[in-house]
Design a protein that fits this description.
By secondary structure, the protein is an alpha+beta fold. It has two domains: 257 residues, Beta-Lactamase (2-Layer Sandwich), CATH 3.30.450.20; 153 residues, Histidine kinase-like ATPase, C-terminal domain (Heat Shock Protein 90). Helix content is 53%, strand content 17%. It has 13 helices and 15 strands. Strands 2-1-5-4-3 form a five-stranded antiparallel β-sheet, sandwiched between helices. A five-stranded mixed β-sheet has the order 10-12-13-15-14. The relative contact order is 0.06. Its EC number is 2.7.13.3. This is histidine kinase. It catalyses: ATP + protein L-histidine = ADP + protein N-phospho-L-histidine. InterPro entries: HATPase_C_sf, HATPase_dom, His_kinase_dom, HisK_dim/P_dom, HisK_dim/P_sf, Sig_transdc_His_kin-like_C.
Length: 572
């Protein structure tokens, strides 16, 4: 990238140098077009070639994501089946503990009959036992001869006593055979003591249950506990009570075998049990899909490179023409800036003149007042009425000149913007007093519909004058002779709304979205800077208001300005 930028910096000055302009009568646009073409071609080809190099990894990643979603879906089904099986066994044990008493189950032969009955439905249950509150097994039915066994030191005894239910991990226990137990505690009202009903299932039986939900797509399916101890036999990790190490399946593992290096696995927690189900499947990379993908990628890449070359060449030519036009516009903008600077200087000069005029006006006003006082004290004479009328006329014109100079100074004054209570109708009348000659000379009919009693708004007098001056000036420029400019003010939903509408040619729909953009103008070259409406939009927004424009060709243009009334603006 640094090399590319250095290359651009070295080449560009040569193309835009004054020597090149002198030789070619301006910029060397042919060499500029070549530079643009090769630069954009490099930018266009680079990402396409990079994408083609990364496509293999991205496609494999997509396949793996899809396969992972499939294995997760199958895992959820398997977890649901195991959860249902465990819930069924828990329900049976619960039902027995509720419907049979401690005395019934500890009588001779009753527990054997109960186990035989249970095995008709759940033949995977290995044995069943009744344990009293001291931890001694008082009744037992099963192949391991555990009658009278002492479980008082077992951790699970305290857990089932407190929680009422306990499902153990697979462990060896007294029988030295991998198994797990489901124990339920119940209260004996005769003995007024707790007793426990305990059913066990061997790990081999649990493994058979797991294998029944294993599909052909599954490479391995087994249970682990919260400590990553295998609960049922695994073809990869070994028999029950072995350690489960998921790193064996990771491709970066050096001890990984080729068989399991490309395997996917997922783990799902079995609700209300200490187990999680692990499902492992081999990855499936579809050869036909991959070949089809590569073929399509090559064709698309070739088409993109050829198309981008043609498009880049066309864009380079268009940019060259655009730069040529931009040079012309730049010269015009410089001339416009010169003109704007002259106008600013004239404005400052006018402000100075207005300030200087105020002083002699004050003297004339004073002398005129003195003449009026002397006239009132003098006796009556022949031309007294005519002289009095002249003095009043002088006084009226002095007031008019003072008003004009004060407004002129107000427009030219710069400084910090001070917001205060202002009356919209008064500001509109002040602006129109400046523009009355322009409106009269343009033969435009001015229609004022200013609603009386409007509430004040919170804004800046000078800024609002500038807003209305910009919009009304544009309306004067757009309105033909004998056209109408209508200015309407009214209160709408605690907001003062000002509508300035003209009967000009209107603005095209394609220009309306850009009307408030800086330097955008629909006027002829040299007649506008494109900044007036942009500044107007910013000033209205700064005062918490909004401005919209509606226009269509042949139907004129209407600007609607909305400014919150004083009460609402104070809340904002």
């Amino acid at each position: 990238m640094n090399f590319f930028m250095t290359f651009i910096k070295k080449i560009t000055p040569k193309l835009l140098s004054s020597q090149a302009r002198e030789e070619a009568g301006g910029r060397d646009y042919r060499r500029l077009r070549q530079l643009l073409f090769f630069t954009m071609l490099l930018i266009a080809w680079g990402p396409a070639l990079l994408i083609s190099l990364l496509s293999y990894q991205n496609y494999v990643s997509l396949l793996q994501t899809e396969e992972q979603a499939q294995i997760k879906w199958r895992l959820d089904g398997s977890v649901g089946s195991l959860t249902a099986m465990i819930d069924n066994v828990k329900s049976v044990v619960y039902f027995i503990s509720i419907n049979d008493t401690f005395q019934d189950l500890t009588e001779d032969g009753n527990i054997d009959s109960l186990l035989a009955l249970i095995k008709q439905q759940y033949n995977f249950i290995a044995d069943i036992g009744v344990i009293d509150d001291t931890g001694i097994q008082q009744a037992y039915s099963g192949p391991y001869g555990l009658y009278g066994e002492d479980y008082s030191r077992e951790d699970w005894l305290e857990i089932v006593t407190k929680k009422g239910l306990y499902i153990s991990q697979v462990y060896l226990g007294h029988r030295k055979v991998p198994h797990f137990a489901i124990a339920v505690s119940s209260y004996d009202p005769i003995r007024q003591k707790l007793w426990i009903l305990r059913a066990t299932i061997n790990a081999t039986s649990l493994e058979k249950i797991v294998q029944t939900i294993k599909t052909k797509a599954s490479e391995d399916l087994f249970l682990i506990d919260d400590n990553n101890i295998i609960q049922t036999a695994s073809t990869i990790f070994g028999p029950p009570l072995s350690k489960y190490d998921p790193d064996i399946l990771h491709p970066s593992n050096k001890n990984n075998s080729a068989t399991h290096a490309h395997s996917l696995y997922a783990i799902g927690k079995i609700i209300n049990s200490p187990w999680s189900l692990v499902l492992i499947e081999k990855k499936y990379l579809a050869h036909k899909q991959w070949t089809s993908f590569c073929t399509r990628l090559f064709l698309i890449l070739s088409a993109c490179l050829l198309t981008s070359t043609a498009v880049v060449y066309a864009i380079a030519c268009a940019l060259k023409d655009l730069i040529r036009k931009t040079d012309d516009i730049q010269i015009a903008l410089l001339q416009e800036a010169e003109h704007t600077d002259k106008l600013a200087s004239i404005g400052r000069l006018a402000a100075g003149v207005g300030h200087e005029i105020n002083n002699p006006l004050a003297i004339v006003n004073q002398k005129n007042g003195l003449a009026e006082d002397l006239l009132s004290l003098s006796p009556d004479f022949e031309h007294r009425a005519a002289i009095s009328k002249c003095l009043k006329s002088i006084d009226q014109n002095i007031e008019r000149c003072k008003t004009i100079t004060h407004r002129l100074l107000g427009f030219a004054r710069r400084g910090e913007v001070e917001l205060r209570e202002v009356q919209i109708n008064d500001i509109i009348r002040d602006v129109l007093s400046f523009l009355e000659n322009s409106i009269m000379y343009s033969k435009i009919n001015l229609v004022l519909r200013l609603e009386g009693g409007l509430p004040d708004v919170y804004g800046n007098n000078v800024q609002l004058q500038q807003v209305f001056l910009n919009i009304i000036n544009n309306a004067i420029d757009a309105t033909p002779d004998d056209g109408n400019i209508t200015i309407t003010t009214h209160l709408l939903a605690e907001e003062v709304q000002i509508i300035i509408q003209d009967t000009g040619e209107g603005i095209s729909k394609e220009y309306l979205p850009h009307i408030f953009e800086p330097f955008f103008t629909t006027k002829e070259t040299g007649k506008g800077t494109g900044l007036g409406l942009s500044i107007t939009y910013g000033l209205v927004k700064k005062m918490g208001g909004d401005i919209i424009v509606q226009s269509h060709i042949g139907g004129g243009t209407a600007f609607t300005i909305t400014i919150p009334a004083l009460g609402k603006n104070e809340e904002n």
